[in-house]
Amino acid sequence: MRTEELIGELAGGLRPVRRMASPRRQAALWLGFATLAVGLAVLANGLRHDLQERMLMPQEVGQWLASILAGGTAALSAAMLARPDRSSRWALLPLLPLAAWFASLGWGCMADLGRLGPMEGQLGTSWGCLRFILAMGLPLAAGQFWLLRHAGPVRPWPVLLLGGLASAALCSAGLSLFHHLDAAVMILLWHGGAMVLLVLVGALLGRPLLARRPR
């Protein structure tokens, strides 16, 4: 067989390579899916009775918007860091909304301490927060890791951590629409604790998925 014929035969069996979606498109696809999933979960649980009153408070609105922005920017950062040609500085994108969110919660803790006195320090339990954020967040994080699974050889750990943060922040935003926690310190403890746990568990469970190399 001549070389030209061999090359032609080999080339004839090749399949066209499907181009990957852009990082912004990947982030937008996942955010759309996550918003739909969390929204359906919120509707299934029913909105909290004082939601309208809460949304008239600037601090409450600021906390909620900051958590959504933290989730959205973390999702975009994860998609960007999954590409070798993108700067690692994309990891800094969620820091500002995340800092604003926790700062608003900290301010709320101080306000509650002045309003409620020592009772603010008497913490209760809210396992429902933990269950919802983990039950919703882990599947959402797995979906994002699958979408970014070709990032394995690039920067897997930043992608895993930011992907978990994106899922946890959006789940926390959804949870605040139907779950009633008056004290800001309770929100900080249970929402924040569940988010940290989700990020760590998601990173450990998602590592094998991102480690798979595309065939």
Automatic annotation (TrEMBL):
Alphabetical UniProt keywords: Membrane, Transmembrane, Transmembrane helix
Source organism superkingdom: Bacteria
Pfam families linked: NrsF
Listed InterPro entries: NrsF
Transmembrane segments: 27-44, 64-83, 90-113, 125-147, 159-178, 184-205
Coiled-coil positions: none
Protein name: DUF1109 domain-containing protein
Source lineage: Bacteria, Pseudomonadati, Pseudomonadota, Alphaproteobacteria, Acetobacterales
